[in-house]
Amino acid sequence: MIAVLDIFGFENFKLNSFEQICINLTNEHMQRFLNKHIYDLEIQDCQSEGIETIDINYIDNHYVIDTFLNVSN
Questions:
Q1: 29-35: which pairs have CB atoms within 8 A and are 24 or more residues apart?
Q2: Rg (the chain; Cα; Å)
Q3: Which of 38, 34, 43 is nearest to 62 (CA)?
Q4: What is the pLDDT of residue 26?
Q5: How do the domains of the chain map onto residue ranges?
Q6: Given a cut of 80, is residue 1 above it in pLDDT?
Q7: In this predicted model, what pLDDT tens digit does every residue of 19-56 receive, in sequence order?
Q8: How far apart (Å, rounded) are the C-alpha atoms in residues 69 and 47?
């Protein structure tokens, strides 16, 4: 099975609705999920198998999500 999800980025209208903020927040969650799996977990797998890795810097957007949802640690 092949599934395709087409997310073309944020939509920015003159007047945004609650639906739009939900869409943008969902996009942030999906970006976080993909970053974690593509970068962090793949590097951990390589390191656990003794494969040398390089440092990959990317912007971790969990602060955006936490701030929006008012999550405190």
A1: 29/65, 30/5, 31/61, 32/60, 32/61, 32/62, 32/65, 35/60, 35/61
A2: 16
A3: 34
A4: 87
A5: 22-69
A6: no
A7: 888 888 888 898 899 889 888 899 999 999 999 998 88
A8: 33
pLDDT band at 8 (very low <50, low <70, confident <90, very high): low
DSSP code, position 49: T
At 38, the amino acid letter reads I
Q: Phi, psi (5° rounding) for residue 34?
A: -65, -45
**What integer pLDDT is reported at residue 57 of this predicted model?**
85
CA–CA dist 73, 65 (Å, integer): 13
Closest-CA residue to 36 (of 53, 59, 15): 59
Q: Which of helix, strand or coil describes residue 4?
A: coil
Asked if 65 contacts 32 with a C-beta cutoff of 8 angstroms, the reply is yes
Token output for 1: 């099975």
